[in-house]
Amino acid sequence: MSSFDELWGQARTTATARQHSSMQLNQLAASGGGDSSSDYTVTSPDLKAVGNEAQKLYHHLETDAFYAGATTNTASTDLTNDGFKTGFALYSAWDTWRSQAEALLSACAHIHNHLEDTVITHQNHEEFLVTNLSVEDIDKHFK
Predict the structure, then answer these.
(1) What pTM does this model have?
(2) Alpha carbon of 3 to those of 8, 16, 138: distances in Å?
(3) Within 10 A of 58 (CB to CB), how many other CB atoms are there?
(4) 10 Å Cβ neighbour count for 54?
């Protein structure tokens, strides 16, 4: 059975070796190959890219999805007033489209905001860990 001092010495040796190659949490390894035990890695640039695409889709959809809204509403009203049952059907189709487009807009905004917050939170955590939890700082309390 190993003593605490022996185990602590081994841990300090290992930690010192790791410290020299810098602390990298949830990032690609220094060699660029990533964690070999994982076949799936998501980096901050990946998250930003997906978030930016969601934002682009939001802006395009916001403009294009409702382009014909006023005209469709006018047409459905005119058809209904002229006694055509298709007026109500047109309005119903438009109302369903509008509702679904609003749900998609909401989803795009949610995806963008969540991924942006995830990237910022990860960066803040990473910075905190790197600056405040260095092996040297921890080690000096045990000498």
Answers:
(1) 0.55
(2) 9, 20, 20
(3) 19
(4) 19
